[in-house]
Amino acid sequence: MVDLKTKTPCAGLVPVRVGPLSLVEDAPGHMTALAPYLGQDAALSEALKAAHGMAAPGVGRMSGKRGARALWFGQRMILLMGPAPDAGLAEFAALSDQSDGWAVLHLEGRGAGDVLAHMTPLDLRPTQFKRGHSARSECAHMPASITRLGDEAFQIMVFRSMAATLVHELKTAMGRVVALQ
Amino acid sequence: MRLPCPICGERDRREFTYSGAAVALERPGAEAGSEAWDDYLHNRDNPAGVTRDLWYHEQGCAAWIVMTRNTATHEVLGAALASEARRAGSTS
Amino acid sequence: MRIEGKGLVERRTPIGFTFDGARYQGFEGDTLASALLANGVRMVGRSFKYHRPRGVMTAGSEEPNALVTVGFGAAQEPNLRATTVELREGLWARSQNRWPSLGFDLLAVNDLAAPFLGAGFYYKTFMWPRRFWERVYEPLIRRAAGLGALSGAPDEDRYERAFAHCDLLVIGAGPTGIMAALSAAKAGADVILADEDTLPGGRLLAETIEIDGVPGAIWAKEMAAELAAMPNVRVMTRTAITGAYDQGTYGALETRPHAVARRPGAACGTFWRIVARRSVLAAGALERPIAFANNDRPGVMMAGAVRAYVNRWGVTPGQSVVVFGNNDSAHRTAADLDEAGVHVAALVDSRHYATCDLDVPFYSGTQVCDTQGRRALESVTLCSAKGEERLRADCLAVSGGWNPSVHLACHMNARPVWNADLLAFLPPRDALPGMVAAGAAAGDFSTHACLRGGAQAGQEAARALGFKVGAPAVPMAEDAPYDIFPLWQVPGRGRAWLDFQNDVTVKDVEQAAAENFRSVEHMKRYTTQGMAPDQGKNSNVAALAVLADATGRGIPETGTTTFRPPYVPVPIAAMGAGGSGRGFAPERLATSHAETRQRGAPMIEAGLWHRPSYFPQSGETNWRQSCDREVNMVRRAVGVCDVTTLGKIDVQGPDAGAFLDFVYTNMMSTLAVGRVRYGLMLREDGHVMDDGTCARLGARHYVLTTTTAAAGQVMRHLEFVHQALRPDLDVRLASVTESWAQFAVAGPKSRELVNGLLDKPIEDASFPYMACGTASIGGIGARLFRISFSGEHAYEIAVPARYGAALFSELVARAEAMEGGAYGMEALNVLRIEKGFITHAEIHGRTTAFDIGMQRMISPKKDCIGKAAAARPGLLDEDREQLVALKPVGAVKEILAGAHLFNAGDPATSADDQGYVTSACYSPTLGHVIGLGFLKAGRARIGEKVRMLDHLRGSDTLCEVLDPVQFDKDGGRLRG
């Protein structure tokens, strides 16, 4: 039997540290896109709560806690991050395994918001984009999901194939921001 | 330029893809005849004023949106999900 | 010369710099202009057209004359205004538009020829002979006229781009802007206060005005510090707001001091996109000159600029100054000069009713009508009812009044409004949604009025944003009225300049009017008035006043030209910052990328994806050898190719089948679970959009593939069809392209290779052609598809992408042990051309299912996207260009994609065009060159000969028309 080794999307690209800023790869475990069928949003939320302990997040929000999170991921789409999806969820939603489809990066440190301001047109002011807020947007011309995890901490997700470009762009922007600090 | 997404709120135009007049929602039946199909496919108004067109929130939530805009002032007057506009059965 | 005890420069920090090869010294806080004036350098450039000596005229970004080139080599930056270049140690600047030197310029001869070089000169002179324009006239004119030059080398300066958001953007940090920012920020609004200058304060830095008993510059410093300490305020100095755009978006150019820009990793500047819900235009006003004969000599300056040099930089631009104006600004300059101990030779006021209590020679009802001096001002001529008088002076300070900076308010096409009392254009109200003009930009010229206007505008904005505001506290300051009497030009002999940067004189504008270029837009283009980099900031209003006079109209009837961004010149490198390399197009790399590169494969781009072209082996010297070997390898043994890049879309739900029936031409609802079907998608206009496979993994679960390049387009289309046309269908779409690493294993030995890996081997009977299902490789859940794009017995294996790199290495190693190996895009292309399989070279947007011989794939049993339009008679005409294969049968043995087809014997004109070649290659399998293309009525012409012509590449080939499928017509190998 063959033994295939695994490789993460950002293997060899991170960690990147510039001044107080650090960029590391997150290993969120399973990632499953949940797309509720017609009229099943409430039922899916109930099932999600029963099976994984968190209700479905509202638009632009993240629910759950570290290790088991549900991320609003677009119109009629929630990304379950952490646990393997309970089989019962399939009654209410289309399930698509996305575990390997995304590079998940964690940017943290003083000026993290300024770094992202180089890359995305999103309004990331702390008063507008608070902890637990999440948005789908463009990040350095790439489709991305951006979530605030803390005052100076963000989760950034792009397609796996774009990991190298994202890290390159983040690294450049980190250098730019730190140079002014 | 900023555009309102009924789901995500106001966003930068970079997140959107433009896709022509909202007439595209009014697809004729298969047997509607060549004149109806010709209108649907090719004939468009070009108003200096209020117009309704389709935008895809491609770099955002992936919603198709009917945007009501004024081509003369660039004012955006409203936005509705295409799915709801279609369900409501009225696009004009 | 410096004036002891004056100015805000740091005299303990001397700075050495070079101008035109000579070493000078200035101080920290100097601009290049103030330092040059302090060193007595008066001539700093030559004018654009007449090569006239020119000196510093203003103290800001509106400077028309003092354009210099800074730096050298790749970092050389031309056309910088010396008035905005911050002095730094080692600064290396030189003057422009002169040869061989500033003092002795050969093209100064243009000035003698001036009578012939007026407006319209080029249009009238360089008309004949016509062919001379490109070869002789234009290069000549370009060399003679012009400003600085680019280095020609790629710019090493690193700009960056960034986005910022706020409730209120305050444009300009003078007294108005500071008060606007303070009052809105105190109410709780998020404020950005931006100013192009290095320090906040605006005119307060240039005046001796006090606010609440404190010198204005100190007040500004204190207020700016208070603002900067507030968490909801961002003070951005060195940041020019360059444009106002839709929905409260503003462009801004921030530059960095040299020392900061040189830090490792730092950018030299940032191009900002600022989104603001409201804005206050507090951009102040610009002083305008008066046109009189020879008003362009070095030493002739704006009166307000002279005050700025005296008060801010402690520099006097002259030893003996004549001040001339039609308003009180001139008096203020005379007072400041006198107070600083500089000799004021005369204060000349064109207003007959003006009085003066200063102890300087005063001339009311008098005008300056001429100046003298060789390379700089030596004397001025005054004229009044009493006659003419000549005064010695090395500096002439002029004020023709103030133009509010209305530009940004008018960027969305609004026109400014003429105010007859102020003799100035004001921003119209509500010109820009959310913007309010205040202070001097709104025509309030006293300091107190600015403070009050700013406070009110800030409060108004805060209130509109929903914040509670109290009563405004407006500090005390002078509140002098503004009095001005019209004076645009002083009549007389000699040229009187309006636009200094583009060398436009009163005579030029009058000539334009005489030749009937009466519209201000026509006059502008005929004379080039206002078309230089300064966009006529200090000259346009006077020019249109002259035009109004010449055409017998009033100024408001004459109107202004259109205001367009950017307000100040912006380097293209700044606007395009972040848009080179990966910032231009992100790279999409497959999981096999590292292994592929290690094997030396050159990469080509397919959409954003990077894919291997071929895998060279030792001894192979060109791509054809590698490609031929890879093709033979697949046909004879087994090849491995990464096909992850093809789009993969999960389609799930109770109505998945019905949805797919609607988007594909053929039936997908009838597809059995565990089977794959080739599918064709049309656009609604009846032309082919994309093709791919549709596999049914479960009763309610399909997975589609799209072509690599069209993956995004297909997803957009499917979402459109679902959301906008069939929201009633209960179906859900998700892209899974990146979740699975997918590899094609193709060739007679493919099953043997695949079975070596699968935990449970497959057999032909249980897993026939077009089967699909789940599989297990080393305990890992995989998907297996028996599909082929090569015409060989083939599989595609998909595993979770984390295993992609390992599986690719494993597959290639095993294939090599079986006399196979990896193959790239070149071989893939040859394999599919041999089989007549199409790509977007064939389905390029203008071809129909009928054209490619797939008309029967449009199911008659159901409606689908594109079906109605595809049935139009014109799209089913037997004479349409149809897909065929071609092979050379004459002496020339090449077929070129892009070449056109003609009947042998017909002339090669577009009227006789019979079709074109879309794909071509050498087929090692068939042993000859082969092509695919479209030929009129092609399907009925199999066996005929046509002529392939390519005029660009000089190719002329006689071809035989063949059936598109040239290899394994019955598909035995696919099923084998």
UniProtKB/TrEMBL annotation, chain A:
InterPro entries referenced in this protein's UniProt entry, alphabetically: TrmE/GcvT-like
Alphabetical list of Gene3D superfamilies matching this protein: Heterotetrameric sarcosine oxidase, Probable tRNA modification gtpase trme, domain 1
SUPFAM superfamilies per the UniProt record, alphabetical: Folate-binding domain
Superkingdom of origin: Bacteria
Protein name, UniProt field: Sarcosine oxidase subunit gamma
UniProtKB/TrEMBL annotation, chain B:
GO MF entry, a single one: sarcosine oxidase activity
Protein name: Sarcosine oxidase subunit delta
A Pfam family that the UniProt record links to this protein: SoxD
UniProt xrefs under Gene3D superfamilies: Folate-binding superfamily (3.30.2270.10)
Protein origin, superkingdom: Bacteria
Provenance organism: Roseovarius marisflavi
BP terms from Gene Ontology: tetrahydrofolate metabolic process
From TrEMBL, chain C:
Top-level taxon of origin: Bacteria
Chain ranges of the FAD/NAD(P)-binding domain: 167-409
Boundaries of every GCVT N-terminal domain copy: 593-862
Pfam family, one: GCV_T
Occurrences of domain SoxA A3 (ranges): 494-578
Assigned keywords, A-Z: Oxidoreductase
An individual GO BP term: tetrahydrofolate metabolic process
GO molecular function: sarcosine oxidase activity
Protein name: Sarcosine oxidase subunit alpha
Ranges for domain Aminomethyltransferase C-terminal: 883-965
Similarity-based family: Belongs to the GcvT family.
Keyword Manganese: no
Species name: Roseovarius marisflavi
